Amino acid sequence: MALTPDEFYQHALAATDSERRLPLSRMTGWEISPFVQDGLRVTPLRPPVVPEPPRHGEDPAECGICGDRDKGVWFNERWRLDRISGVGLPLIVMLYPRDHYDLADLPDEMAAELGLLSTRIVRHVQAVPHVARAHMYRFGDGAAHLHLWFFARPEGQAQLFGSWLPVWDDLLPEYPADLADADAALVADALVASSGGSRTPTAAYGTEAEPAR
C-alpha cells in the first residue's frame, strides 16, 4: 500500500535542509538542462493539501475544453486535434476527445482509437521538414478533460533532447505563427489520409494553453 499523504511528506522532508529544500535533482546536471546548477535552488517542500483542489472542468457543464469541441485543425466524430499557439517549439498539437472523458474513463473502443491516433500523429509530426522527433505527454493535473500533448523537437537541437523539452519550450521565443499553421495543416492533411475525418479549411489555427500539467 502506498504511503499516506502525511507519511509521504515526512519521508521527503527527511531529505531536506533547514529550509525544507530538497537537493538539486540529477536532471539539473544533465547537459540538456536549461539551467546552470550554480545558484539554482529548489522550492521549499510544502505540506500536503487534502482533499486536493478540483481540476478545471471537473463539472462537464463548466468545462472550457468541452466548449471548444468544434475547434481544431482536424476532427472526426469522437476526436479533435488543435494547434497550441504562443509556444517556442516549431509545432505543438493537442489531441482531445470531443466529449467529456478523462483517460481512465475512456470506453475501450475509444482507448483503442487513442493508441492508433497517437501513433499516427507522432508519425505525421515527425514527417514535417526539420522536425527530428515528436514527444507525447499526458499530465492531467490541470484539466479533467483528457488532453494529450505532441511536442515537435526541432532538427539538430541536441540541447533540447528528452524530458526538459517542455521547459525549453517555455523559455524559447515564440515561433512564427504562419510557419506553425502551415505545418499543422500538413499534419492534419496526413491525418485525414491515414485516419479519415476532416481538416478545418482555414489558414489560422491555434489555442492558447496553460503550462503543461
From TrEMBL:
Keyword check for Hydrolase: yes
SUPFAM superfamilies: HIT-like (SSF54197)
This protein's UniProt keywords: Hydrolase
GO molecular function: hydrolase activity
Designated name of the protein: Diadenosine tetraphosphate (Ap4A) HIT family hydrolase
Organism field: Actinoplanes digitatis
